[in-house]
Design goal:
single chain; alpha/beta; 2 domains; 9-stranded mixed sheet; 11 helices; 44% helix
């Protein structure tokens, strides 16, 4: 087996309290030919000082421009043949890179591989390993229908993929979904079931913004609709749209409006009214009774 360099890019915006764990998780990989690049997206905390505590970690700085821009701007600095993007509040398990490389080195046509991840619900002290899909073909359709790659750090890209495809700066939370669709529609990708990453879910990350995520996911899906021609593609699009609407409206209702018993914003209530009328009525009834 060859020993190619892997670049791990860690974008960070005011996540200094988490950053050390992310860097250590890369340093502790059983696969050791790795470079670590931290892209500071205009942080006002002590991100730079955290990086300075580590040897052989590249520190880059940009004015705050968002996650997509941070990733895109780090890519030209990557010297590796493969690239992984690790958010500063997440971490990798020790065998992550070895698991990925086992497949990428075997098949040079693969543009990226993805693995399984563990969800860490910080506020509720809950660990959930993501249920895995047994996918051997039609990865584009599965991503379209299920978005089975729900954690960016569970993906290792071949560098040449990122010379052609970049992260869309118009999306704040679902840029990963967009790039996975673009690549898998045109190139070979692979998914395996090995546990590779930990996804920390807490109130300050994008994953808690249900309205933003649903709106962006539906926008991305709808942009692909015109390019879908086969019956299977159109079915995957329709099922994917239904799945996203059901998941995010229920999450908004149960996880936020009901669990925390707070009044929804006009945008949140509007999402329920538009996409899930039955939950909208339940929200109104509960809100009126609470008053």
């Amino acid at each position: 087996m060859s020993n190619p360099l892997v670049s791990v890019v860690i974008p960070s915006y005011n996540h200094a309290i988490y950053l050390s764990k992310a860097i250590k998780s890369v340093k502790n990989q059983s696969y050791t030919n790795v470079e670590v690049i931290v892209m500071d997206d205009g942080s006002t905390d002590h991100t730079k000082q955290v990086v300075a505590d580590f040897e052989n970690v590249v520190y880059l700085y940009q004015q705050n421009a968002g996650l997509s821009a941070a990733r895109n701007n780090a890519i030209p600095h990557c010297k590796g043949e493969f690239v992984l993007f690790l958010d500063a509040d997440d971490w990798l398990y020790p065998e992550a890179l070895n698991h990925h490389l086992r497949y990428l080195l075997k098949d040079p046509e693969l543009y990226f591989v993805s693995g399984s991840h563990m969800k860490i619900f910080v506020d509720r002290n809950i660990l959930i390993q993501k249920a895995d899909y047994d996918i051997t073909e039609d990865h584009f359709l599965y991503i379209l229908q299920h978005h089975y790659i729900s954690h960016p750090a569970s993906v290792l890209f071949r560098r040449k993929a990122l010379d052609t495809y970049i992260f869309d700066i118009n999306y704040k939370s679902c840029q990963d979904f967009a790039i996975y669709l673009a690549i898998s529609k045109n190139h070979k990708v692979l998914h395996h079931s090995h546990l590779v990453s930990a996804y920390r879910l807490h109130s300050s990350n994008m994953s808690s913004n249900y309205v933003l995520m649903l709106n962006e996911l539906l926008d991305i899906l709808d942009k692909y609709k015109l390019d879908l021609h086969s019956e299977n593609e159109l079915k995957a699009y329709t099922e994917g749209r239904k799945m996203f609407i059901k998941f995010y409206t229920k999450s908004l209702y149960w996880d936020k409006l009901r669990r925390f018993k707070i009044k929804g914003t006009n945008e949140e209530v509007g999402i329920l009214r538009k996409h899930n009328p039955s939950l909208y009525i339940r929200y109104l009834v509960n809100y009126i009774l609470k008053r």
